[in-house]
């Protein structure tokens, strides 16, 4: 059986074999009630950004620093650049909010990929694992994940908005999961060995707001 609590309101889902009785599922859920309430409380209190409209002088973040968005329309190749305290978004005339969002999201993915490469080169030999593939994608409920059998890790593009030390913590966290898949005593010992201040970095990351998201019910 697998129990999960999903945002934004803490809906509980249990995955189990179809042959399992409802009474067994009910007893299992009741036994996990304290954990369920704890996770639901975290979701309710979790700060989220407001939806971005991609308008002039709107606040956006890169590596923990606030930038103002500068939107210009021109009959030239659309692109996103960084200039001093501004993120400059050049679009075609009449570009929709969705198109602007797509361009900025792609730019964040590029920023994250560029920052991850040296971290992987640094930590893979130190931890003693191998990584075949790295995926950077939008994730609604996780900062990252890993697949031990596929030797790959996935990172949330939102990490590009957070301080660089938070990204490094996530990289080490997921690489350690290639050795130990659960958050047990062995995993904690690995994190203590590789990054003694990992708890401070985790706390810093978890106190920062996550992105606005649309949910299907």
Protein described:
The strands form 3 sheets. A 4-stranded mixed β-sheet has the order 3-4-6-5, with helices on one face. A 3-stranded mixed β-sheet has the order 7-9-8, with helices on one face. The chain has helices at 22-31, 33-45, 97-127, 164-177, 185-194, 198-207, and strands at residues 2-6, 11-15, 59-62, 65-73, 79-83, 86-91, 133-137, 144-147, 152-156. It is globular. The chain is of the alpha/beta class. It has 6 helices and 9 strands. The model is unreliable at 212-217 (pLDDT under 50).
Strand elements, count: 9
Task: Return the domain count.
Answer: 2
Question: Could you say which structural class the secondary elements and strand pairing correspond to?
Answer: alpha/beta
CATH class of the largest domain: Alpha Beta
Low-pLDDT sequence parts: 212-217
The 3D shape can be described as globular
Helices, by number, come to: 6
Distance between the termini: 23 Å
Oligomeric form: single chain
Strand order of the largest sheet: 3-4-6-5
Rg of Cα set? 20 Å
List the helices and strands and how they pair.
Elements lengths: L1 E5 L4 E5 L6 H10 L1 H13 L13 E4 L2 E9 L5 E5 L2 E6 L5 H31 L5 E5 L6 E4 L4 E5 L7 H14 L7 H10 L3 H10 L10
Parallel strand pairs: 4-6, 7-9
Antiparallel strand pairs: 1-2, 3-4, 5-6, 8-9
Summarize the structure.
By secondary structure, the protein is α/β, with parallel strands linked by helices.
Keywords:
217 residues; alpha/beta; disordered C terminus; 6 helices; 4-stranded mixed β-sheet; 2 domains
